[in-house]
Design a protein that fits this description.
Blueprint (H helix, E strand, L loop, with lengths): L2 H28 L19 H5 L7 E6 L10 E6 L7 E7 L12 H6 L3 E6 L8 H17 L7 E11 L1 H12 L5 E5 L15 E6 L11 H7 L6 E6 L12 H15 L6 H4 L8 E6 L5
Helix pairs in contact: 4-5
Bound molecules: O 4-(2-hydroxyethyl) O 1-methyl benzene-1,4-dicarboxylate.
């Protein structure tokens, strides 16, 4: 008669003790050892190597879809490239503009190359092939807004971690976009062309890549003064490719891909595993010069 009334509370008491013990154990195991040891929530993909950065593709399988100019406003449509997995959380995103008179196809190797390292990429067409850098900057920002707010891949993107890049007048446009939207996490102008030589207002981490033998946007009157004018507080680097012409971004360029991916990983994903590729930076026959704001040891 009394056994049900005595054993039920005891069972319940034991159950409560067991639950408490499990919770305590979980709390000990899950407790962060301190902010310095907390895992980076934006880190994607395996520990990087030079071989991984120089391979024709990164670790993520990708898909692409085209964006009709009739379906968007503020830019001319383009192509989206994205990692197919949805099991690793969201990814940062980047919009990339081609240069004067050129279409996205002129630099489209960058789409799958960058996406395969864990970024959503939109390669844009401009409203007109003759649009100037300021317009290209506005169009890059319109493309990012479309990508994060209206595109079919918007759910795959972390809208707080965005970047811009471009070639020539598109590179000049990426400086304009970074100047206009300081919340961007990175900019990568490639052989940038712009009549504005002073970018002292820039606060976005910026990697400029120039070609030593560029006669359309000579580094002496474009990339170098752009780099010099960006405050060191923004974080910046300048890579000059040995003997490269204005058109180095128009075919697969390994030093460009390696350094661009490392920069995006470091500043869009906050992934410090990539610092080893930024500081002290690349060397070798393909590299004419590398400057940076690395902490001096
Ligand atoms: C591929 C930018 C006076 O400016 C120019 O002549 C000039 C020419 C080409 C480009 C450019 O964006 O080239 C990229 O079309 C400026």
């Amino acid at each position: 008669m009394s056994s049900p009334t005595t054993t039920r509370p005891r069972t319940a008491r034991i159950a409560r003790l067991a639950v408490a013990a499990v919770l305590a154990a979980v709390a000990v195991l899950a407790a962060p050892a301190g902010p310095a040891l907390a895992a980076n929530p934006y880190e994607r993909g395996p520990a990087p190597t030079v071989a991984l950065l120089e391979a024709s593709r990164g670790p993520f399988a990708t898909s692409s879809l085209s964006v009709s100019s009739w379906s968007v406003t503020g830019f001319g449509g383009g192509v989206i490239y994205y990692p197919t997995t949805t099991s690793e959380g969201t990814f940062g995103a980047i919009a990339i503009s081609p240069g004067y008179t050129a279409s996205w196809s002129s630099i489209s190797w960058l789409g799958p190359r960058i996406a395969s390292h864990g970024f959503v990429v939109i390669g844009i067409e401009t409203n007109s092939r003759y649009d100037q850098p300021a317009s290209r900057g506005q169009q890059l920002l319109a493309a990012l807004d479309y990508l994060t707010q209206r595109s079919s891949v918007r759910g795959r993107i972390d809208a707080t971690r965005l970047a811009v890049a471009g070639h020539s007048m598109g590179g000049g446009g990426s400086l304009e976009a970074a100047s206009d939207r300081p919340s961007l996490q990175a900019a990568v102008p490639l052989a940038p062309w712009n009549l504005d030589k002073t970018w002292s207002e820039l606060q976005v981490p910026t990697l400029i890549i120039g070609g030593e033998s560029d006669s359309i946007a000579p580094v002496s009157s474009h990339s170098e003064p752009f780099y010099a004018s960006i405050p060191a507080s923004a974080e910046k680097a300048y890579l000059e490719l040995n003997g490269a012409s204005h058109f180095f971004p128009q075919s697969t360029n390994t030093p460009t891909a390696r350094q661009m991916v490392a920069w995006l990983k470091r500043f869009v994903d906050d992934d410090t595993r990539y610092e080893q590729f930024l500081c002290p930076g690349p060397t070798g026959l393909a590299i004419e010069e590398y400057r940076n704001t690395c902490p001096s040891a």
